[in-house]
Amino acid sequence: MERHAIQPSEVLTEDGGSYPGKLIQRVGGVGRNHADALARLGCDSVLVSAVGNDSNAEFVRNSCKHINLCGLKTYSNAPTCTYLSINVGGNIKYGISTIEPLLHLVTPSLVTENKEHIENAEYVVLDANLPLPVMKETINIAEKCGKPVWFEPTDIKKVRAIFDCGGIDKIAAVSPNANEFLEWLKLCKIENIDGDVVKSPRRILELIEKEKEKVMKNVSIMVVSLAQNGTAVIHRDKFGLLTFKSIDAPVSPKEVVSVSGAGDSFNSGLLAGLLYGKSLDDSINVGQRCASATLQSVLAVAESLSPEFVE
C-alpha cells in the first residue's frame, strides 16, 4: 500500500506550513509493481507476498484483480506494509515506510508453499525487501529448478542483501538505480569509484567494460536507471558476449507526473519483450514505452499498459 503527497512546484519550504497538491492512495511495492506490469503486458504473473488482515489488504486485493494472488498470504498480527512519499516537482524527496512488523513474520515457508509457481515460471523477480532467509530459499528453489532470478535492490541499504544471502553468483539479472549501482560497485570491491560515473549511461558502460568480471558476476541482464539521465542496459548472450546500450530518458522532465514505479515498468517491459522472443533492441523499446506511460501517471504502474505494448 502506498500513499503519496504530490506537490507540483519545485519550491517547498520546511516551515511546517501546508501546500496545495494531490494526495493519492495506490497499490505499490517493487515486487507487486513488476507483477502488475507483467500481467498487464499479457504475461501470467503470480504474486507471492504477504498482507495484514486490514482494510489496506482489501484495497490491495481489489486493485490487483488482474494479477494471480494465490500466493498472497494473510497475517492477522501485523498491518499491511505501507509506504508514504513526499513528491515535489516529480521527484521523491522523502519516503517513510512501515514494513518491518509484517516482514518479521514472513518465513521461508511462504516460498516453499508456493514452490510450484517457481517451478512453472520462466523468470522469478526477487524483491530485496524480503528477509534474508526468504530470499535464500527463493534462490535455492529457483536454482534447483533452473529458473533465472531477477534481483531488484529496492533501496541503497538493501543492495547488500543479495551478497549476504549467498545469492550473488546465482542471479541472472539486476536492476539498480544510480545510488544502488554505486553501492553495488563497492560491494564488488571496485576501487577508486568516481561518483560522477552515474551521470550518464555511457560512463557506466565504460566502467563495466573495464571491470566486467567483477561487476557483472554471472548476471546476464543489468539495468541501471539514472532517472532523467537515461538508462544503461548491459546484456550477456548465451555465448558470453556483452552488448551495451545507452538509452535516453523516455520523456522530458516537464512531462513527468511521478517517477515512482517507472523503473519497475521499464524492467517489466524489457523482460516481457525477451520472454515473447523479441530482440534486445525491441525489448528495450517495450520497456521505454512502459516507463513513459508510468512516468506520466499518478499510479505505480500505468493502467494503459497492455499486450499491445509488446506487439
Automatic annotation (TrEMBL):
* Keyword RNA-binding annotated: no
The biological process GO terms on file are: phosphate-containing compound metabolic process
Tell me which Pfam families the record gives.
Answer: PfkB
CDD domains in the cross-refs: YeiC_kinase_like
The Carbohydrate kinase PfkB domain is annotated at 10-300
Keyword set for this entry?
Answer: Kinase, Metal-binding, Transferase
Q: Please indicate which superkingdom the organism of origin belongs to.
A: Eukaryota
One GO molecular function term?
kinase activity
Name by which UniProt lists this protein: Carbohydrate kinase PfkB domain-containing protein
